[in-house]
Sequence to fold (522 residues):
Amino acid sequence: MFTPKFKSLSIALLCSSLFTACGGNGGTSGPSIQLDSKTSNNVPTNNNTNQSSSSANQTNDNTDSTKPPVTTDENRYARRGRVIDGYVTGATVWLDLNNNAKQDKNEPFTISTDKGSYQLELTEEQKKCAVYVPTYVDVPVGAIDEDLGEVTKAYQMVLPPTLSSLDDSSMLHITPLTTVLWQSLNKTEPFNESSCDEIIENNQLQEQLHIAMQESTAQVIEHYNISEAQLFSDYIESGDESLQKLAENIVKGLQASIEKHLALAKTYLDAHEIRVLHYQDKPSEQTHESQLVWYRRVLIFGKDDQTIVDETVRMDDDLEHVLYVHYDRKIEHMPWGDGHSLSRTADMVKNSSDDLGLCHHSEKLSFTIDGVTYSLDNYKSVNRTSKDQLCDNDVDFSDAVYRGLSVEYSTGSINYLAEFTQDSNTISDLDDWTNLADKPNILDVLILALYFAQSGYEFDNDVTIPFNSWHKRITDDSGDNRITTSKHSDGTWSRQTYQDDGTYIMHCSTDGEVWESCESHD
Fold:
């Protein structure tokens, strides 16, 4: 039985959850991988922001360059598998016993051999820990990818903890896809720097880890529409060419993200956290084209998790040069009224290098009453007149020509969402609900809640407020597998039915009664 708990994953959400090399308090730390080694026989180093670039070639003071001793009597256990982009020979595989993302003294490691094979020799105590901590592989310059040849840019891959006991015959492959899974896990609260000893002693934490693993696995499976078996498979041995191509592109992005992270860490020495993600998506200027292009998103957080940088750029195919800044966001959060929240956002968006772009401005009020969350979002766009024009939050929303309204609530295992958009022709109510930052002591959220109550937001009810468009969704987790049903103001319906392996099937309808393959509706 497979029941994903998260909602459908957009590329934007992936951008926020799959960033590499997140730092901790007191500055960021770079990946542990050794970037410029021509040999994989040394333990990878840990680079912090105060080291020069040459320090990437120095051995970590906390590690030995030889394997930790394991006596004959102790050596009763082993962890086996393959290092796979293509099969990678000469990579360092190590078990992160204290879950600090760097290889420390006495953490077991080995070097991958023919067909990427590795065997980690473990003591009984290490075997118990291996269930709860990640296994890293550092692929240095000079390692051999049996499909692509010598590795020219270093990168790192990770296998998340299994959270269940395995026998010595189990094969645990470390691939770009398992790395994506770990990147969505490692900053969740249960996994964040939880050591082996802490997990073993805390049954509640173990349960939280299982839940986080299930949810993150569901996210990755849904985004790529692959099965759980494919996620952990040896796709070369099975001949899955599409999965192999996907893995190669993930590695290309991982390599570029590590290099960019290290460069940013030297500039933002006081940053609390730096996130970098290279990903592929459809070109913004040709939304109907199927060809994917490369983007890079950077998020940098300072003190109190304040966002310092939130930027997306279009990259060239080699991930070497920025073609143009596609998106740059500035966001301001503030309390509003009696325990409610207001955010003001200014986004600069360009769709090509020649485009002057737009400034998108938004003010969004959110509040919750009796378990129902309401939001009102006024937004407007302004054409930029020069490439030097800034987008900031000093804007008047009294002439905003768009408004978004939403209601979300849950009943048992079923979640309901209704979203409405209004434009200049349909914004006829709530005239005072603009420039909200100036009115926390003037406006009453109960008036807004009453407006929503009369809107027809329930899934089966007719919409009774003016709208330009609307969308209603039911996410049903009451059965064995999730079913998500949506209907839209244009009369179209869609249904996403999940299977036991985590994949999903899409059906479409015009009345919510007769469902067919969505291809027949194109």
